[in-house]
DNA sequence: ATGAAAAGTGCCAAATTTTGGCACCATTTA
DNA sequence: TAAATGGTGCCAAAATTTGGCACTTTTCAT
């Protein structure tokens, strides 16, 4: 039996039986007592928490909390998870963000370095704050599911983005802008973009954006986005 | 160099260099040509797509599409990720929830079946809604980081939970309750629990709970929790 | 108290796996 | 045609893993 297979068999048997002695495990996996002892050490090194009680009536016990899973994820999925957790943490009061962060850190470590760079650049464009309690949230629409892939590409390649925008008064306009940042004030999401036609920053509520697409052509340059409450108070954002 | 480390080094070098010959790889990782050839076979077995061109100007090339991340996560971390995404989606307007869901589905598939059962039971206890816009959110505190592991264990094993609670008027009480569900009205989180002393359900704001710990002893029974807005209007929740 | 049952450690030789070297084949291109 | 490249089979050397043994410590039942 392969060493890896044996480790798996030991974990499975420990899960099933609750408490097991080393000799029982050795018989189960067809290895010697000494080898099983070494396997236990290896498993502990891998992060499995295995309690042991010496003496009569003792044995080994696997802490089910320490069970680990191995998943293969596409890079885009990791992006989505990261953004979810970042946004959730920023929404405040996510009791479990510490654990989620730890999980994502592990995932991030397995990504190729340039992907991590991309990811950080994208997350840098993400600014999360708290909406003022006075904000009226009665008319939130849903966000075009096509937005993520388009946004991601536009942000990472710094390409112009074209879309339809419906403002609070129901007017519809056609925009072509340089996406600079995303502002999340849960549950509202804003795109912060430089509008070359107006030579100024504009904030777009993402649930009012439709038919987004990328304009192939020259790359725009990254600008410093003023997120300061004084310079750009949240109350001045589009409703 | 470890065999596993060497495999990683080969993949990294292939990513960096685009095309590489076996001899170059061998020099890079400090192994023989023969060993690298064996490693390539092993990597292909693992699912990496490695194109090869024989002849002058040929070499090996890694298909970047075949790159996926593999991460080992603790079950608690998966829980945390799931809750984050579930809560974020429920908060509405998470543009990327589709992808995040797909990623989590993959992770879930790798969990042992009884863990999936636990997880579903835990998520069943999770009810997410929208807070009324009128809610005053000025005094939200932070949540005790010790809460997740304690809650998770209490929920899954159906054990009594004891904690200190500070109510809106600043009074502090000591509670021992049966945790039945969690109600998320972002950014507020509530614990819905049966209070045996008062023979009734109580809602506790999670940021007002401190020093949680589990009471070992008899398991409580699961109750039907009324989430209906009519039966238990959100406006009646503790402020 | 004592003995049995259990975890845990150190060491060494045997067993097994991994590695390197070699000869050789197939394919491509200058 | 010759050189450069991937690829295979085989064997002995090198490295790693395994089993066995002697030993320690802890716990529990008698």
Automatic annotation (TrEMBL), chains A, B:
Annotated HTH deoR-type domain residues: 3-58
Organism, as annotated: Roseinatronobacter alkalisoli
Keyword Heme set for record: no
Protein name: WYL domain-containing protein
Transcription is among the record's keywords: yes
Pfam families according to UniProt: HTH_11 (PF08279), WYL (PF13280)
Keywords associated with the record: Transcription, Transcription regulation
InterPro entries membership: CBASS_pafABC_assoc_protein, DeoR_HTH, HTH_11, WH-like_DNA-bd_sf, WH_DNA-bd_sf, WYL_dom
Family annotation (SUPFAM superfamilies): Winged helix' DNA-binding domain
């Amino acid at each position: 039996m392969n060493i890896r297979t044996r480790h798996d068999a030991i974990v499975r048997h420990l899960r099933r039986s609750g408490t097991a002695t080393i000799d029982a495990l050795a018989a189960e996996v067809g290895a010697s007592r000494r080898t099983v002892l070494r396997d236990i050490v290896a498993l502990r090194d891998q992060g499995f928490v295995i309690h042991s009680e010496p003496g009569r009536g003792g044995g080994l016990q696997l802490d089910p909390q320490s069970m680990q899973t191995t998943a293969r994820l596409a890079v885009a999925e990791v992006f989505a998870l990261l953004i979810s957790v970042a946004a959730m943490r920023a929404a405040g009061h996510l009791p479990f963000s510490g654990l989620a962060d730890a999980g994502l850190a592990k995932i991030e470590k397995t990504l190729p370095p340039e992907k991590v760079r991309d990811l950080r650049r994208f997350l840098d464009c993400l600014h999360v704050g708290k909406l003022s309690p006075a904000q009226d949230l009665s008319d939130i629409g849903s966000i075009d599911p096509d937005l993520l892939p388009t946004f991601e590409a536009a942000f990472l390649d710094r390409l112009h983005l074209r879309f339809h925008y419906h403002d609070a008064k129901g007017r519809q306009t056609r925009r072509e802008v340089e996406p600079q940042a995303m502002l999340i004030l849960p549950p509202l999401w804003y795109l912060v973009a430089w509008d070359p036609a107006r030579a100024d920053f504009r904030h777009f509520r993402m649930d009012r954006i439709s038919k987004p697409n990328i304009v192939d052509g020259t790359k725009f340059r990254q600008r410093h986005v003023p997120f300061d409450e004084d310079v750009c108070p949240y109350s001045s954002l589009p409703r």
